[in-house]
Amino acid sequence: MSSDEESPISQAVYDQLATSYDDITTSAVREQYEWPAVQSLLPSLDGIHVLDAACGNGFYTERIVECGATAVGVDASPEMLSHAQERFADDDRVEVNQADLTDGLPCLEDDAFDLVLCQLALEHIEAWEAVFAGFNRILMPGGQVVVSTSHPVRDYIEAEYPVREQILAEEASYPEIEQVDRDWGDEDSECVVPFYRRPLAGMFDPALNNGFVVEQVVEPVVTDAFSEATPKFATVLRDGPPLFICVRYLKPR
Ligand SMILES: C[S@@+](CC[C@H](N)C(=O)[O-])C[C@H]1O[C@@H](n2cnc3c(N)ncnc32)[C@H](O)[C@@H]1O
Which residues contact 71 (CB under 8 A, 6 or more apart)? Predict the structure, then answer.
């Protein structure tokens, strides 16, 4: 990441969001919808070594080490990382480094981790092959990757038939990987976050091509707690495709 041209497309916006990012991590959509689905895919964390890939401000890295793991957090955004560094300043269970996942994680050793956790970051990355090649290299045989990312069916429908004002798309072509931005701002300010949508096979092929097998797929569900916290959103999500898809991949022994 030596120049702005080479920075990940979402870096500037996450630098901008870093100060208020815990409003997102503590929202109902994360805590009562996405996280329970991710948690259901996690192995026992006690005593294992975890890479939190695109750790953001370290909110979920902290969850992981609270369950007995040690962790390395990497992220491309210096501002998000500075919050993670602050969070773990006196905590030797966690090390934090700046890295672009598409560079193959040269700062990390081969076969060093039991688990990679990658929550809500791959949707900002166009090509996943190098990312999974890096995950494969740094995981020990028998290691796992747990990913949450945007759901390809909802992404396609929202891009092709944008009903929510925040989706900034003209039209979509299902088989393609396409940039579809979202505006997370309010009526006073714009905050355009760049995303990529992809077909369903795009969730799996980059991992399969890099030696992983798919162990389990979970789609988050609308619970009573989520409905109570955010009734309008829950109504939209109850009968339609989920916002996210969560997958556990295995590096075979
Ligand atoms: C929605 S946040 C998720 C952060 C954290 N995983 C969480 O669940 O709260 C997306 C994160 O992905 C990071 N990111 C995006 N593209 C990246 C890349 N190519 N390499 C490393 N981090 C990236 C962003 O900087 C941001 O911190």
Answer: 49, 50, 51, 52, 61, 64, 65, 93, 94, 95
Render pLDDT for 51-82 as a digit per residue (tens, 0 to 9): 999 999 999 999 999 999 999 999 999 999 99
**Which residues are within 8 A (CB) of 86 and not within 5 positions of it... i.e. 6 or more apart?**
none
- Model confidence pTM above 0.90: yes
For the Cβ of 8 lying below 6 angstroms from any atom of ligand 1, the answer is: yes
Q: Which atom of ligand 1 is nearest to the CA of 52?
A: 6
Question: Is residue 120 within 6 Å of ligand 1 at its C-beta?
Answer: yes
Instruction: Give per-residue pLDDT as tens, 39-55.
Output: 999 999 999 999 999 99
Q: Any idea where the domains of the chain sit in the sequence?
A: 4-151+200-250
The residue with tokens 């969560």 is 246
- Cβ-based burial of 13 (10 A; exposed 0-12, middle 13-18, buried ≥19): middle
Nearest protein Cα to ligand 1, atom 26: 56
Q: How far apart, in Å, are the Cα atoms of 145 and each of 44, 97, 157, 213?
A: 13, 19, 27, 10
Residue 27 CA to ligand 1 center (angstroms) comes to 17
Atom of ligand 1 nearest to the CA of 102: 19
Does any ligand 1 atom lie closer than 6 A to the CB of residue 124? Answer: yes
Asked if 138 and 52 count as a contact pair (C-beta separation under 8 A), the reply is no
Mean pLDDT of 218-238: 92
Residue 238 has pLDDT above 70, yes or no: yes
For domain 4-151+200-250, the CATH superfamily is Vaccinia Virus protein VP39 (3.40.50.150)
